[in-house]
């Protein structure tokens, strides 16, 4: 009788230390990928106003575009009638119009200006829901506080605010997309209207229109030329010295033909030091607005 001894054949088990090393390696690689991607993006977002503005623009816009495509796709899958599709799209525009208004106010600057234009001449370009939602922009936007106005004036002019004005009304007579205007009295007693431009508007001008032109080319190519024309037009508005030169030229032309000051009055520029890229003081002329005159 032959006895056969059986032995447990040992299994080759991975070395625990080797497994830990590989896991640690892959974790480090994954962490490196995340860090090398997220950290630069985070740094760029926190330090680059242009990059941050582009991110804000597209993060607000893309979800609306996706929702619009979902509405159309769902209607097609559910075999909706044309009337039902129109109803769903109308409801989408009603929801999106309020979001568009909030987005424009959040971004400010050129976007407010374009919102004002669309609310005035947007018929046939955008849905009527957006025109109605944007109409409040025609009455102006929330103004900047007096502390911000003082800082802009001092940085642009290079003199202390108190040395420039005998009196300065903290409540603006109007606030628009790129600037606001205040009534003031100069140190020599002349009454003026002071326009103060928000400095970040010019700084972010290129970024804003780059985003707008890209968006238009992708989704509304038929309006691409309109956006390009607006870009060229608004470029001249970002330097108040251009406006001052236009006022002076208009005054000379009107005076040479006998219209000024008998029939019309062009505001003078009373103080050259208050004529900079971001600040413009013009002679105050008492009267009524053109809109009020037309209604009368």
Describe the structure.
It is built from twelve helices and five strands. It is globular and about 75 Å long. Strands 1, 2, 3, 4 and 5 form a five-stranded antiparallel β-sheet that branches. A hairpin with a 4-residue loop joins strand 3 (179-186) and strand 4 (191-197). It has 296 residues and is α+β, with helices and mostly antiparallel strands. Helix 3 packs antiparallel against helix 4 (110-121). Residues 1-9 and 34-47 have low confidence and may be disordered.
Q: Which sheet architecture does the biggest sheet show?
A: 5 strands, antiparallel
The string of secondary-structure elements, in order, is HHHHHHHEEEEHHHHEH
Mean pLDDT: 81
Shape: globular
**Strand residue percentage:** 5-15%
Given helix and strand content, the structural type is alpha+beta
N/C terminus separation: 128 Å
Number of helices: 12
Q: Which blocks of ≥5 consecutive residues have pLDDT under 50?
A: 1-9, 34-47
C-alpha-based Rg, rounded = 31 Å
Tell how many strands the DSSP assignment holds: 5
**What fraction, in percent, of the residue positions are helical?**
55-70%
Topology:
Blueprint (H helix, E strand, L loop, with lengths): L15 H32 L1 H29 L4 H26 L2 H12 L6 H7 L11 H12 L3 H4 E4 L5 E2 L3 E8 L4 E7 L1 H5 L1 H15 L4 H12 L4 H17 L22 E5 L6 H6 L1
Antiparallel strand pairs: 1-3, 2-3, 3-4, 4-5
Helix pairs in contact: 1-2, 2-3, 3-4, 3-5, 4-5, 9-10
């Amino acid at each position: 009788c032959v006895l056969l001894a059986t032995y447990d054949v040992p299994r080759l088990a991975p070395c625990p230390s080797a497994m830990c090393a590989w896991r640690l390696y892959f974790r480090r690689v994954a962490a490196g990928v995340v860090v090398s991607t997220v950290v630069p993006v985070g740094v760029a977002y926190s330090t680059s106003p242009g990059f941050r503005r582009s991110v804000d623009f597209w993060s607000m816009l893309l979800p609306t575009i996706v929702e619009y495509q979902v509405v159309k796709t769902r209607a097609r899958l559910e075999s909706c009638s044309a009337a039902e599709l129109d109803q769903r799209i109308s409801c989408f525009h009603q929801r999106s119009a309020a979001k568009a208004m909030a987005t424009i106010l959040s971004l400010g600057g050129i976007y407010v200006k374009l919102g004002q234009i669309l609310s005035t001449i947007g018929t046939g370009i955008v849905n009527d829901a957006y025109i109605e939602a944007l109409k409040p922009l025609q009455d102006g936007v929330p103004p900047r506080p007096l502390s911000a106005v003082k800082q802009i004036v001092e940085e642009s002019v290079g003199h202390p605010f108190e040395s420039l004005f005998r009196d300065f009304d903290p409540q603006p007579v109007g606030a628009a997309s790129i600037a606001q205007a205040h009534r003031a009295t100069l140190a020599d007693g002349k009454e003026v209207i002071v326009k103060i431009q928000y400095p970040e508007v010019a700084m972010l001008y290129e970024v804003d229109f780059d985003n707008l032109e890209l968006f238009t080319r992708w989704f509304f190519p038929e309006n691409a030329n309109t956006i390009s024309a607006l870009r060229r037009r608004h470029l001249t508005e970002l330097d108040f010295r251009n406006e001052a030169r236009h006022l002076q030229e208009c005054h000379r032309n009107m005076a040479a033909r006998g219209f000024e000051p008998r029939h019309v009055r062009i505001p003078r520029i009373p103080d050259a030091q208050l004529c900079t890229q971001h600040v413009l003081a013009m002679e105050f002329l008492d009267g009524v607005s053109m809109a009020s005159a037309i209604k009368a």
